[in-house]
Amino acid sequence: MAAPSEMYIADATKGFDALFSNDIDGAKAIFGAKPASPFHLLGLGSTIFLQACLGMESGVVAEAVKALNEAEAAARAQLKSSKSAKSLTRFPPGTEWEILHADAVVLQGLTNALSETYYGYMQSLYALNSAHSKFNKLHKTVFPRGVDAYRTPSTTPALSRASSMQAAPSATLVSQTPTAKTGLFGRLIFASAGPSTEVRTDAPPDGALEEMIVSGAAFGNGLFNLVLSLLPSKMRGLIGFLGFKADRPAALKQLAVAAAISTDPHAVFAGWQAEEAYILKQYLGIIERLESRYPKGTLWILSRAKLSLFTYKSQEAIKTLQDALAPGAASGFIQADALLVFELAWALLAEARYAEAAEAFLRMKQMNSWSRVTYLALASGCYILMGNLDEAQKLLDQIPSRFRRTKPGEGEIPTESYIKQKLVDWKEKHAKRGGKGRLVDVIKISPADELAIIWNNHHRMPKNITIIQIGKLTALSPLPKIPSPLQMELAAASDNGLVDLESPEELASRSLLLGILYRTIGEYKTSRLFFDDCLGRRARLSTSWIPSTAMFELATLDLLETESSTKPDTVPSTPGVSTPNSVATSTAESAAKELWRKTLNAATTKLDEAVSLSTNAPAMAGRIEARISMLRDEIVNKKAGLGL
After folding, report:
1. CB under 8 Å to 394, separation ≥6 — which residues?
2. What is the pLDDT of residues 321-334, one digit of tens each?
3. Which residues lie below 8 Å from residue 313, measured CB to CB, with a gap of 6+?
4. How do beta strands 172-175 and 198-201 pair?
5. Domain boundaries, the chain
6. pLDDT reported for residue 358
7. In a 10 Å sphere around its CB, with 0-12 CB exposed, 13-18 middle and 19+ buried, how is residue 24 labelled?
8. Angle at which helices 248-260 and 618-642 pack, to 10 degrees?
9. CA 128 to CA 226: how far, in whole Å?
10. What mean pLDDT is reported for the chain?
11. Which residues have CB under 8 Å from 549's CB, separation 6+?
């Protein structure tokens, strides 16, 4: 007869199957039917957590916090009572409850971080500190030799009890005594550690309970490290003082291991977390596993579309998203469906299908209450790009009354801070021109174009559309002093004696956009000139997000330019045979390595400066720093690959 824990896992897994097949109500019904089971309580908390993090709605976030608090308390109670019981697995008694408790705590931390405020980050840090020692201990118990020997979805089939014996590491005896921690909290937590016990570890998981433990340990530690790596730099500095070290590559590896476990829900969560930072092969392996298990799951449809976008198959991505959103095809998981709509809107914007993009952004208002102001500004920006100023003005008129009211201690949504400042700037420009006419008439750079920088959307644009956009921006007066390598017919200048771009902010914004667009089509020299021009204006942009973003984009340009100039020779040389060609190849490789060393060091310096500049734009600092953090990881990986 199965143990109660295994019966609870089997039943709770049905709830997760419903969740990842878009049946939110069915999942909640299954999880809610057994309120005494920590597995079900965590399932309910995880379901509401997914709704909260996908929808970013304050009411749902509060509900998620409540559910996760109940799950954490139930798991803690079970953990306490299990210490004297006989273990149901090869792991120490109560390990499964340790996993559940740590999962609940780290999800609490993630939920607190959704606010994108430093108060929320501090609450998140408090929760993560509580989870840190648990995951560290669990990881050492379950993976004493690390996770490198475990399969991941991109290379092999899933681990299973029948087939994994040959590939899994051999079983070993390890001590459970925790190692000393260097961090302050770590030392306090481990000061009263109990006696060590010997357990058999890193053999293949045997049964649902052990699958849950192995997958849960990899998932929890991976997610924990991923969260730390994406916190703003000030928070990472604090967690470093406390003894934590963010390791994003290791985090993604651990999530991949979790994703390889065939039936445990942790595997599905791990696959969902593995986004564009994964190499495409790893990502594809995860998506294919989950699609086969949940063919109608919205999250995996979204992942498939993202994969198409990563590989510049934008039309394929748009079709995937539109098919999933067709009448009768939409799921009951409205937060996930909203993600499909939002992704579709950006894909359509990159293809210059402005009316359709505006419609998609406006559709978000009915699906999600995160920031209606942001959706209105984006839709208005789409109409400005297509020249439909009447529709753009109608949407602009709605914005002032739609700003979200913040509660005490709650931060303003970064994009709403940006839009609020843009309204001030536009009204000031409008007043300088006598206050006549419409506000939209003074807007020469679309807010959709500027927000697309933050969402890194311009790299998706086809070359022909990019060139058209370059022409539109170049035609704005005063004309740029930097010559264009492109042959373009510019629109005739206005005869009303007024220039299009007046403020340092507007001029810097155009230079930033042109730098990105020229880089998109491979015109690196011209791109660099525009980034330099943008940064040359930073002394007059004391509270702007533009200089820090330009410095980040310049670092990205450094890397792309070096990558383009050091592509390996396609003619192979014969190993071990010294020929003029092979000698030349060796010399070229040495020169390329030296060029990469200089480039990577220069890019790192630029990223340091970008972080420093981001303090001048606190509203957008978190988003900018997240992109900087991810690019730093790519630099570390490149250095490792080159042996630098």
Report:
1. none
2. 999 888 877 667 78
3. none
4. antiparallel
5. 4-192+199-295, 334-459, 462-534, 542-569+582-644
6. 98
7. buried
8. 80
9. 12
10. 76
11. 453, 454, 512, 610, 620, 624
The CA-atom distances, in angstroms, between 313 and each of 357, 427, 492 are 18, 40, 35
Is the CB of residue 221 less than 8 Å from the CB of residue 254?
yes
Nearest one of 6, 2, 80, 69 to 41, comparing CA atoms = 69
Question: What's the 3-state SS for 175-189?
Answer: ECCCCCCCCHHHHHH
Angle at 208 between CA 204 and CA 211, to 5 degrees: 40
Whether residue 200 contacts residue 90, with contact meaning beta carbons closer than 8 Å, is answered with yes
269 pLDDT more than 50? no
pLDDT value at 549 more than 70: yes
What is the Cα–Cα distance from 102 to 99, expressed in whole angstroms? 5
Give the span between the Cα atoms of 459 and 527, in whole angstroms.
13
| Inter-CA distances, 32 with 9, 40, 50, 514, Å | 14, 7, 16, 54
pTM (2 d.p.): 0.73
- 395 and 423 Cβ atoms separated by less than 8 Å: no
Cα distance between residue 359 and residue 283, in whole Å: 30
Tokens of 603: 């890019």
Residue type, 154: S
Q: Which of 283-287, 379-383, 597-601 comes out lowest in average pLDDT?
A: 283-287
Q: Give the three-state DSSP class for 261.
A: strand
Coil, strand or helix: which one is 42? helix
C-alpha distances out from residue 351 to 309, 315, 318, 356, 369, Å? 12, 9, 10, 10, 26
Q: In 125-144, which positions are buried (b, 16+ CB within 10 angstroms) versus exposed (e)?
A: bebbbbbbbbbbbbbbbbbb
